[in-house]
Each structure stands twice: as structure tokens, then as C-alpha cells.
Amino acid sequence: MNEKKLAKHWWAILLRGIVAILFAILAFFATGFTLNLLLIFLVIYLLLDGLLAIIGSIMAGSHHRTWWVLLLEGIVSIAAGIFVFAWPSITLVVLVYIIAFWAVITGIFEFLGSISASWAAPGKVFLGIVGVLSVILGVAIFIYPLFSVTAIIWLMGIYALIIGLSLIFFSFKLKAINK
């Protein structure tokens, strides 16, 4: 049964959720810090999220036919993190578009992953919610790119908090079927 094999690696999803919540906490308290500190937080989040997604895809590779969706999501996250790190003096508008593009692309992959998951897979609705929220955030940022830095930081923090809580809940659903 594929769900049982996927459930063995519930902890990887839990780690992604914890990383997202840590980023959310940092984002909520970073509003008074410099943009450079925010960029460091963003790079760390993107790289860790991408790395954990890639590890999860490798672990699910032999058990799940849609492992490549998680792999692509991880690659996009790492690419965005490297881009932000390589050009820290980039203008805020370009950074905003990178974040918007990342949110839309990863949201599409997460939503597609939820659709292609087995009907019996626990918590697939939460993966779909994560995908839809990512796309909504990305589209909102594309429409209003000149939000203040504080508003963008808070939106990213709220987004990361919701994503983190959803991933943690999903990981515990998987852990329950692993017993």
C-alpha cells in the first residue's frame, strides 16, 4: 500500500512544517529589521524548504508515482533561494516578483500533487489547500507589487504559518497510519 510507505517518512513533512513556522515567527518579528536581514531569512527558508522537499521526493520515489512533483517544487525553492542570495541588492519590486512567481509555481505543484494522490491518502485536502493558498498569495503579490515592506513581510509570515500548520497536521495524519 503506497500510503503506508509514504507514512514511514511523515517526519520529513513535519520538518517542512516546522521550518515554515520558524520562518513565519521570524517574519513577524523582522518588520523593524533591515531588508538584508529579511533576505537572509528568506534565503534560509527557501533553501531548507527546497532541500526537505527534494529529500521527501527521493524517499517517496520508489513508492509513489508522483514523486517528481515534490522534486520540482524543491528545485524551484532552491533556485529562488540561490537567486535571492546571489543578488542581495536587488530592488524590492524584483524581489516581490520572485516571491510571487515562486508562490504560484510551488502552489500549482502542490495542488497537482493533491489531485494525483490516492483517494485514500489522509490529509490530501490539506496539501490542496496549501497549493491554493500559495497561488492566491502569488497572484495577490503580482497584482499589488508595491505593497510596503511591512505588508509583504506580514503576508509572507501569515502564508508560512498557514502552510506550516497544514504540513504539520498532514504529517501527523501520516504518522497515525504508520502505526
Tell me what you see in this structure.
It contains seven helices and no strands. The chain is mainly α. The chain has one domain (2-178): Serine Threonine Protein Phosphatase 5, Tetratricopeptide repeat. The mean pLDDT is 81.
Q: Please state the CA-atom Rg, rounded to the nearest Å.
A: 16 Å
N to C succession of SSEs: HHHHHHH
Molecular shape: elongated
CATH architecture: Alpha Horseshoe
Largest sheet data: none
State the separation between the terminal residues, measured CA to CA.
Answer: 14 Å
Mean pLDDT: 81
DSSP helical segment count = 7
Percentage of β-strand residues? under 5%
User: Which residues form runs of ≥5 with pLDDT under 50?
Assistant: none
Assembly state here? single chain
Structural class: mainly alpha
What is the CATH topology assignment?
Serine Threonine Protein Phosphatase 5, Tetratricopeptide repeat
Number of domains: 1
Annotation, overall tally of beta strands:
0
What percent of residues adopt helix (DSSP H or I)? over 70%
Given this structure, which CATH class is correct? Answer: Mainly Alpha
Any chance you could write out the topology, listing elements then pairs?
Blueprint: H1 2-7, H2 10-29, H3 35-60, H4 67-86, H5 92-116, H6 124-143, H7 149-178
